[in-house]
Amino acid sequence: MAVATDGPTAKKARFWDKIARKYATDPIADMAGYEVSLDRTRTLLAPTHRVLELGCGTGTTALHLAPSAGRFVATDVSPEMIAIAREKLAAAPQPNLEFEVADADAPAFGQGCYDVVLAFNLLHLVADLDAALSSALHALVPGGLFISKTPCLSEMNPLIPVLVLPVMRLVGKAPPVLCLRELDLRAAFERHGMDVVAVERHGTKGKDVRPFIVARKRGPADG
């Protein structure tokens, strides 16, 4: 999918393109917690599943999870992030995995094309949470799973959303973000016809502000 050369999508792409190479080399802050999330996600995938990942970054998570699925399409708004992901894939080929450029705020993947949609470290970065969820769920089959892990900035130090983030944005060191809580995410999922089936915290270092939430898209029989 091509990304526009102007407008909000292009602006986001430029921000992430600029930091993509550094982002690719930054260590994962809580590797043990990350491994727990990977293992938990694997328990929810099947060899027949068609999986869509939104906001895949440089592809690390997709490369770990693709062997547990049938077809795996991983997307990101940043062409440079996707270029790095494709470099990783070329070094360790997986025939069921592909990387594509796409904006999570405006995905267009067809209706009911995927059994699972993943959004890790993404939902706080979309422009409109309801619009992004609506578009993503359009791609899910009834009964399909939406699996997310989201930094909830409103659960952090109260100075972060009101002081630290505005200053970082002013100097170009941070993108626009949504200051969410777990309750905000749960309410949004339920508004969009999903049943929240699991809420977990996988962090192993200090306070964990990244809830791992599994939600199921209701089918016709669910009302």
Mean pLDDT: 90
Strand order of the largest sheet: 3-2-1-4-5-7-6
CATH superfamily: Vaccinia Virus protein VP39
What class, by secondary structure content?
alpha/beta
Which percent bin holds the helix content? Answer: 25-40%
Distance between the termini: 34 Å
Domain count: the total is 1
Taken as a percent bin, the fraction of beta residues is: 15-25%
Count, helices = 7
Biggest sheet descriptor: 7 strands, mixed
Which features would summarize this protein structure in a list?
223 residues, Rossmann fold, seven-stranded mixed sheet
Q: How would you describe this structure to a colleague?
A:
- There is one protein chain.
- The chain is built from seven helices and seven strands.
- It has a single domain, classed as Vaccinia Virus protein VP39 (Rossmann fold, 3-Layer(aba) Sandwich), CATH 3.40.50.
- Helix 1 packs across helix 4 (79-91).
- The radius of gyration is 17 Å and the shape is globular.
- It has helices spanning 8-25, 31-42, 60-65, 79-91, 129-138, 159-170, 182-191; strands at residues 50-54, 71-76, 97-101, 114-120, 140-149, 194-201, 211-217.
- The termini are far apart.
- With 223 residues, it is α/β, with parallel strands linked by helices.
